[in-house]
Specification:
With 215 residues, the chain is an alpha/beta fold. It has one domain: 3-Layer(aba) Sandwich (Rossmann fold). It has seven helices and five strands, in the order ααβαβαβαβαβα. Strands 2-1-3-4-5 form a five-stranded parallel beta sheet, sandwiched between helices. Helix 5 links the parallel strand 3 and strand 4. The protein starts with a helix and ends with a helix.
């Protein structure tokens, strides 16, 4: 059973049971549906590129999710994003959506390049949890071309994003994988001061695309 199928089964069980977990289960099911919608929006041509990410990759807040930042990347791009997820096991309150848990389903058809983007949802997690999740994911991606994209200093979580960025810089150096630090760039944000505007997505994607071309 694929990872996302397992997630859906768990969430539907929670919904059926009702109680205190009902509202969160409904939220998780909604996010899962959004994830599946974006997954079906494949852009570009050429070598298969897989993006594993959070709401930025899904395009949360955009009128057209297909224009989220991965659409700027070279290649035939497949997006496996889930809003609220991260490297850490408890970054999201939804079950089985951390990056290492979703990696097998994302790569079941292979990929010439795997781009992993995130970190903003790890803002309240201890460094040990971030390191553990990252190392598990990198272990699963051994032998593949991988590019890690860190979190920008979104105004709503700027200080936390910089802490996460520092850990990811250390971990990518330790693992010997390329890292794109986003904390030094300025982007335009929606009113929540967390998610990117259409222009912000274009700028974000352009930076990642340049990093891929220089890989």
């Amino acid at each position: 059973m694929g990872a996302f199928v397992l997630v859906l089964a768990v969430l539907m069980t929670l919904l059926a049971s009702g109680g205190a977990t009902g509202s969160n289960a409904e939220r998780c099911t909604r996010l899962w549906t959004q994830s599946q919608v974006r997954e079906r929006m494949i852009t570009g041509h050429g070598d298969r590129v897989v993006v594993i990410g959070d709401s930025y990759s899904v395009g949360l807040g955009l009128r057209d999710p297909m224009t989220s930042w991965p659409s700027r990347l070279p290649g035939r791009v497949h997006v496996y994003g889930y809003s609220g997820s991260g490297f850490s096991a408890r970054a999201s309150s939804c079950p089985h959506v951390e990056y290492d848990d979703r990696e097998p389903q994302a790569l079941q058809s292979g990929a010439g390049l795997v781009v992993v983007e995130g970190g903003l949802n790890d803002f309240d997690q201890p460094a040990s949890a971030l390191r553990s999740g990252f190392r598990t994911l990198i272990g699963q991606l051994a032998g593949r071309r991988v590019l890690i994209v860190g979190p920008p200093a979104a105004p709503a979580r700027a200080a936390a994003a910089r802490r996460v960025d520092a850990v990811l810089r250390q971990e990518t150096a330790r693992a010997g994988v390329p890292y794109v630090a986003m904390t030094g760039y300025r982007f335009s944000y929606l009113q929540d001061r967390l998610h990117l505007t259409p222009a912000g997505h274009r700028d974000f994607g352009t930076i990642v695309a340049k990093a891929i071309k220089g890989y």
